[in-house]
Design a protein that fits this description.
Two copies of one chain form a homodimer.
Chain A: H1 3-10, H2 14-22, H3 29-42, H4 48-55, E1 60-65, H5 71-86, E2 90-95, H6 100-112, E3 117-120, H7 129-136, E4 141-144, E5 153-156, H8 158-171, E6 177-181, H9 188-204, E7 212-213, H10 220-229, E8 236-239, H11 242-254, E9 264-269, E10 282-285, H12 288-305, E11 315-317, E12 320-322
Parallel strand pairs in A: 1-2, 1-3, 3-4, 4-5, 5-11, 6-7, 6-8, 8-9, 9-10
Antiparallel strand pairs in A: 10-12
Helix pairs in contact in A: 1-2, 1-3, 5-12, 6-7, 8-9, 10-11
Chain A binds a DNA duplex (16 and 16 nucleotides) through helix 2 and helix 4.
DNA sequence: CTGTTAGCGCTTTCAA
DNA sequence: TTGAAAGCGCTAACAG
């Protein structure tokens, strides 16, 4: 079942059949109707491999994400999917599980498949082979969540956001504020957020604490509990992401600490689920869907104009503090984000 | 940059270059080394559109899921991704948002892209155009979570699972057990689970309650709260999935009810997150990753043998009761699943 | 072990 | 408005 069959049955050449679908206005109305009828009757579906091979355009955007087990990326992907669909693009999401080699392999596959553009969340944009490859092949790409001067990025000012929220915790009387993070080397976001924590503590004249690094998902609750059992335990925990914040709350409960009375817990990401928990998660709200949308828009615009997005297209979006019940922060008068580009 | 360039630079014919990658043993060792060197140096990446067009095989499996915002599908996808990778397949996950038309559109795209097989979670296998299309085009496919006699399915016996857990609630003294579900028409799982609920209530001689149907995610907490405010409120809630169970717990808190003391809440799915919540979610644990794995294995086996999976390949996997803290169920002596196929 | 060549299904000039 | 034909990049006979 291919274009030839349709042509034969409809009584026209394959060129006309092709045109009937790709440039209907160039075909006689009756001819078109006839061809459409036959195509439908035969259940004809154009072979996209052939189309892509011939036209060198796929109308596909590749999407590289660390994982979909963290809802923050699922929400972002939702935004990507909707925006892509609205712009007439398909997407191919692939998860890397924070493996750099997987990022590279995926980008290779994307190039082989002639994707029109790529949207990525990488571990470390600074020395990413995947990005180098994309650049060398002149394929439009945009980073989400990452931030680096050499690449087009769509993200929030994480460092400022963390500094802000740590400041708020201090305002509420907290002096012993610790930070919980996944493996720092695995993500530049974690690093940015850690920098924000250190900066804020320094500015506040508070003694920062050793980072509570919990690389292995499965055991993180236990690992956090250990820290909470110490005599010099912190009174507030800033967590590098909401999933860790959820686990921290659990760890507090396991340790006989009440949240937020005995321990304040603040997350980062603003996953929707956090609002349905008890206590409702206090967190830095990123515009996750919007970030996806903006990335797609950037890519689609570039594609339409035939140019590559560069660092000059970087967009820093607004974040906000979502005040829940997991921390003794009472009001949402968050300082204005320090940087903002539109 | 294509095979021709590599051939020219390496000083061999394109046929030899092709063979060097696809059938290395048929090429002289030195020739191969030379070709590999040149290919690497030029950054050659074979054009998969051309390969697929020529060979009619893509080593790609299409994956149709309702949403990735529900972690149950993200976990399943994780299993799919790992199994596919292990079998040398790529996957292309697409979400339908429970839209039947989107299922059909997606399957068409998959067919156009020459996927080797398709793995789906559909709304209603009984009259699915998407499945009909797949069948008519002779494309191997397997359903996950769905259950229907005409199709190859990998799932658990939801009906029995629900009946079991409702029975346990009754054993613990509950007489007023209500069920919370998303829009029933949107998923045959919800329907199976509802049947299980009704069956169990009937067998227990208990009066079943009107289904608490909360079609719109955003407002579900409020909708559930309304039901909990009634004077004849239930003492136990069986929720069609874990996300609803989480929201039910929140609704209970909002209503001044303590879980599980005043209200028992049981979920379905066994998402990992549930174990990190307070109270830990009591839920029916499905082998989500395993289901993904089994689906891929089924597909890969069929592909290897050149035959289509049929209803006879259906596998009903084991579920279990995960006893958390959200319900007054004290022990895990769950009856053996009523049906089981291996 | 290597090269020649036909052709996968489609789009797109170009000519009629 | 339609058709003939070249060719996208690759694979797989087949011949040597």
């Amino acid at each position: 079942m291919n274009i030839k069959d349709v042509a034969r049955v409809a009584g026209f050449s394959i060129a006309t059949v092709s045109r009937a679908f790709r440039a209907p206005e160039k075909v006689n109305v009756h001819t078109r109707a006839q061809i459409e009828r036959v195509a439908k009757q035969l259940g004809y579906i154009a072979n996209s491999s052939a189309q892509v091979l011939r036209t060198r355009r796929s109308r596909v955007l590749g999407v590289v994400l660390p994982t979909l087990l963290n809802p923050v990326f699922a929400e972002c992907l939702d935004g990507i999917a909707r925006a892509a669909h609205a712009s007439g693009y398909s997407i191919v999401p692939v998860t890397t599980d924070y493996q750099v080699t997987s990022e590279e392999r995926t980008v290779q596959t994307f190039i082989a498949a002639n994707v029109d553009g790529v949207l990525l969340v990488v571990s470390n944009p600074a020395d990413s082979l995947a990005l180098r490859l994309l650049k060398s092949k002149q394929i439009p790409y945009v980073l989400a969540y990452n931030l680096h001067q050499d690449h087009p990025c769509v993200t929030v000012d994480s460092e400022a956001a963390v500094a802000d929220v740590v400041g708020q915790l201090a305002d509420c009387g907290h002096r012993h504020i610790a930070m919980v993070s996944g493996h720092l080397a695995q993500s530049d976001r974690a690093q940015q957020r850690y920098r924000g924590y250190l900066k804020a503590m320094r500015q506040l004249g508070l003694q920062h604490r050793d980072l509570i690094e919990v690389p292995f998902m499965a055991t993180s609750v236990a690992q956090i509990s250990v820290q909470l059992a110490r005599s010099d335990r912190p009174t507030a925990l800033f967590c590098s992401n909401d999933l860790l914040a959820i686990r921290s709350v659990r760890a507090a409960n396991d340790s006989g600490l009440r949240v937020p009375d005995d321990l304040s817990v603040v997350g980062f990401d603003g996953i929707e689920l956090g609002m349905d928990l008890t206590p409702r998660l206090t967190t830095i709200q990123q515009p996750n869907r919007e970030m996806g949308r903006v990335c797609v828009r950037l890519l689609a615009d570039s594609l339409a104009r035939g140019l590559l997005p560069g660092p000059e297209h970087t967009q820093i979006l607004d974040y906000s503090l979502r005040v829940g019940e997991s921390a003794t922060i009472t009001d949402a008068h968050m300082p204005t984000p320090s940087r903002r580009t539109k």
